[in-house]
Amino acid sequence: MTIIVTTRLMRWKKEWKSLLYWLFFPLIMTYVVLQSVGAWQAETKVPIALVVEEETEMVTHLVEEIAQSELLLIHYMEFEEALHKLEQHELDSVFVIREGYEDHILANRRNQLIEAYSSNRSFAYRTVVEIIASIAQQDAARSKAAFVIRQLYKEHGMEDEWSYSDIIVSSQERQQNKALLQTSFTFYAQTDAGEEQSVSSLSIKGVWSFFALLMTFFLFDWIVKENRPSLRPRWHFAQLPFKAYAFGTFWLYTGLLVIVDVTTVLLLSTFYKESITFMGIVSLLAFRLTINLLAFLLATVFTQSFFYYISGTAVSLFLIVGGGAIIPLEGVTRKWPWVELFSPVQALLSETIPAAWLIALTVLLILWFQKGRKSYA
Amino acid sequence: MLEVSDLQKKYKEKTVIDQLSFQMQQGEIVGLVGENGAGKSTLLQLLATIMQPTEGDIQLEGLSYRNDRKKIRKKIGYVPQDISIWEEFTVEENMLFFEKLSWKRRSQEQCRQLCLDMQLTHWKESVQSLSGGMKRKLNLAISLLHDPILLLLDEPTVGIDLKSKTEIGTYLHNLAKNEGKMIIYTSHDMDEITHICDRVYSIGKDPFYTELLKEKGVAVEVIT
């Protein structure tokens, strides 16, 4: 092992710039991509104006709900100013909550609750109307349910036990705590607390895993370079055969990359306020071992670096898409669970160990070791 | 002593070397000539233990290639046709890198002296900036790190200037005569072969090289 470490340090000393670049490539690129996507989302929000003419609790709640929509950039202004900006096409659309909104809801009148104005360039108008209408409908439905419950209490002589506002507050609490609707399609760099956090964490891992795969394939080009046909005779007369040398070097790289991976995960989790679980770390280590073995074995097939880089990049893309890092595969894997075996990325995202990959790659590694062993001896 | 007996090498159905036998003693430099594809490189690779013969045997200092390949390999220095060095390293780094992988330990000074012995003086220079001749010398120096008894050189001076060729030739001559190394040398340069080698073997069916060397007054033995 001393020979391997000494000679490797000689190579690293010569290639330290390239080595450092690739080691920090996943961390830097994950940060850049997440920040860029976040900034792009902020810039692509639809600008709308909200004209609020009533100051009741229900209206305040409605406005807060609309403001939480990540697709909308909301400006609060007077009616005339909003219409002027709409005519200037500075706004996509204008929504007016008139005096009497709460009364309409309480009276279970659900038509014409909010006025909406658009121009001939309101490209997102229909979608925004759907978003705001659904939030208002939520209030209306909740109010109607409260009235029905109150009516039932009245009929059974229990009208003093729950007031209208108690029922509304209880309903809102339940909605918040139960996360009634959840989807895998989340936005990158989302830092909200609660249930959504884990979904956001998967996205960060997904982005990181792509760059980690690329980094691994590019770093493992040493096998191609050091086993090129012109250098092979040297290994024949070395005290360590190339395969033993390569295998020892593989573990050296694995150790180095584990340190870099754990550091990267710590930095990313701190920055994006993600929690780290024990299984998360275990699956990360298993993922690292798997992709190192994959890059190692792939590199042994090639004699020219260029073709190895092309193949490594193609394999990375395949594993990322097949692993559900870009498009979630939950629907597919529910129907066909074996799809999960396609990529070790899937195992990383679901915090499991890619056992099938590890077994298959270990078998291939043993076969690689055995191949040509007799003729060498 | 090196003794080759009834050596045969087949690639599938094609016989490249057939019934080849010869002997050589310590301190001898033997030239190997023949047209392209005659089997010169194949013979060197068989002698270098890189390939296994289909039939026949080779013995080096009483050790058989059939049973003692690992021991024999330590006694062989092989200089391939292609230059097998790290282009991005300096001469020093190349020597030290391959010294670490070598069977024999040598100090930095000994490595440097090895280079100086063959007039390779650019110790701290990057290989990329060296001339073809200097690269060939480094290629040879690395193959000598473990102090082999048998040195196999596959066209070691191809494409280099006359001065470097002469320096390499002089070095090899001294190596054989002063240190008793056995050297087998392939080349297409008949002047070089005539100048360096004690004996010449011709390999292949084309009599061109045999006749050319006979015209120069060199004794050539056809071995296959």
Q: Would you kindly provide a written description of the structure presented here, covering whatever features stand out?
A:
The complex is a heterodimer of chains A (377) and B (224). Chain A is mainly alpha-helical and 377 residues long. Chain A has 17 helices and four strands. Chain A folds into two domains: 2-38 and 192-376, no CATH class; 45-178, Periplasmic binding protein-like II (D-Maltodextrin-Binding Protein, domain 2, 3-Layer(aba) Sandwich). Chain A has helices at 2-14, 16-43, 57-67, 79-87, 101-106, 125-155, 164-178, 196-219, 222-226, 232-236, 242-271, 278-301, 305-322, 330-335, 344-349, 355-370, 373-376, and strands at 46-52, 72-76, 93-97, 115-118. Chain A has a four-stranded mixed beta sheet with strand order 2-1-3-4, sandwiched between helices. In chain A, helix 3 (57-67) links the parallel strand 1 (46-52) and strand 2. The longest helix of chain A is centred in the middle third of the chain and has 31 residues, at 125-155. Chain B is an alpha/beta fold. Helices cover 35% and strands 25% of the residues of chain B. Chain B has helices at 40-47, 69-73, 91-101, 108-117, 132-143, 162-179, 190-196, 208-215; strands spanning 2-11, 14-24, 29-33, 55-60, 63-64, 76-79, 150-154, 182-186, 199-202, 220-222. Chain B has a six-stranded parallel beta sheet with strand order 6-7-8-3-9-10, with helices on both faces. In chain B, 44% of the residues are buried. Chain A binds chain B through residues 3, 6-7, 10-11, 14-15, 229-231, 233-240, 245, 375, 377, and chain B through 48-50, 52, 69-70, 73, 76-78, 80, 82-84, 86, 88-89, 93, 96-98, 100-103, 142-143, 146.
